[in-house]
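Design a sequence for this backbone.
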């Protein structure tokens, strides 16, 4: 079976990874392959005593057999542990954002401390990496929405409470509260504008940013609305069915 080795470049000035596809025998013990991995890639890190290997962000030991989860065909094996997927961090966080409309619909991002949401801007070629989207103490969510500003809104989570403010966007921000009653929904059908003052938001509230809509959500373990209890599963009969 084929797997991909992600090996750090030998140059000390870069943190890039070099991808190398190799064929391994299903059932082979990972520890027995270390010397071959070092020979193929030319990197001694594969055989360094105590060096941990991982498939993406999941650590594997020398007893891991090839062909068993997570070391399956197509897996990406690396030295050290890779970054945890942002989606996993998001659903485990106390509060996270879910993009429900727009070019990046489906994206998730945890809100831990300060988070800036804005338009994605590509880095100019041959220029040192620099971004005005977020400062060193901020995280950011960059969306491919051309109608958004580079820095559109800022969110902050303090003492379990989430707040948002517009940071000077070109076309503004609208907050639509999750309706708790039909009367409330009729009273504010299009939401309210968000300005530079902090506004507290709750799970279920939505922010309209350009052509994108971002929803505030809590962890997936939070209890949802109670559902009516049923004694069993009921399968409706087809429309063409006739009682006998």
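Sequence:
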């Amino acid at each position: 079976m084929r797997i991909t080795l992600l090996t750090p470049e030998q140059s000390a000035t870069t943190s890039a990874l070099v991808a190398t596809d190799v064929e391994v025998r299903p059932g082979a013990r990972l520890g027995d392959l270390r010397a071959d991995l070092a020979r193929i890639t030319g990197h001694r890190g594969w055989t360094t005593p105590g060096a941990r290997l991982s498939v993406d962000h999941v650590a594997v030991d020398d007893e891991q057999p090839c062909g068993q989860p997570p070391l399956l065909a197509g897996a990406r094996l690396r030295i050290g542990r890779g970054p945890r997927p942002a989606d996993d961090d998001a659903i485990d966080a106390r509060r996270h954002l879910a993009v429900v409309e727009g070019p990046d619909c489906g994206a998730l991002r945890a809100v831990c401390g300060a988070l800036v949401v804005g338009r994605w801007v590509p880095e100019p070629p041959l220029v040192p990496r620099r971004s005005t989207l977020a400062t060193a103490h901020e995280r950011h969510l960059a969306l491919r929405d051309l109608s958004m500003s580079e820095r559109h809104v800022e969110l902050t989570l303090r003492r379990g409470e989430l707040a948002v403010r517009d940071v000077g966007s070109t076309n503004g921000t609208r907050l639509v509260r999750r309706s708790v009653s039909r009367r409330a929904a009729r009273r504010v059908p299009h939401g309210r504008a968000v300005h530079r003052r902090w506004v507290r938001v709750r799970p279920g509230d939505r922010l309209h940013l350009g052509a994108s809509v971002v929803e505030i959500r809590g962890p997936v373990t939070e209890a949802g609305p109670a559902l009516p209890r049923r004694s069993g599963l009921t399968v409706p009969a087809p429309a063409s069915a006739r009682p006998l």
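Residues 126-137 have pLDDT under 50 and may be disordered.
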